[in-house]
Design goal:
The protein is elongated. It contains 4 helices and no strands. The relative contact order is 0.20. With 82 residues, it is mostly helical.
């Protein structure tokens, strides 16, 4: 049971890190505009990039929060004396 809790925490952390990467990748044109425009093939950024990026990052953060909450509850159940 402890292994399952640890794996759930590791998975939730990995999902949260992926959400951070998606969020930074989404807002890269705003974070570092000079570098983005040097590498860009077109002169404008599609607004769908922001819509999909924010939604994807939000889903990743929400699922990481849910998995972490579930792992904390499971850990609390294991620590109670019988």
């Amino acid at each position: 049971m402890k292994l399952k809790i640890i794996l759930t925490e590791i998975f939730s952390t990995t999902i949260a890190l992926a959400g951070v990467i998606v969020l930074v990748g989404t807002f890269f044109p705003l974070i570092n505009p000079t570098q983005y425009w040097k590498n860009a093939k077109s002169s404008e950024v599609s607004p769908y990039r922001y819509y999909y990026g924010v939604v994807g990052a939000s889903v990743a953060f929400a699922s990481a929060w849910f998995l972490n909450k579930r792992a904390i509850k499971a850990r609390g159940r294991n620590n109670k004396p019988t």
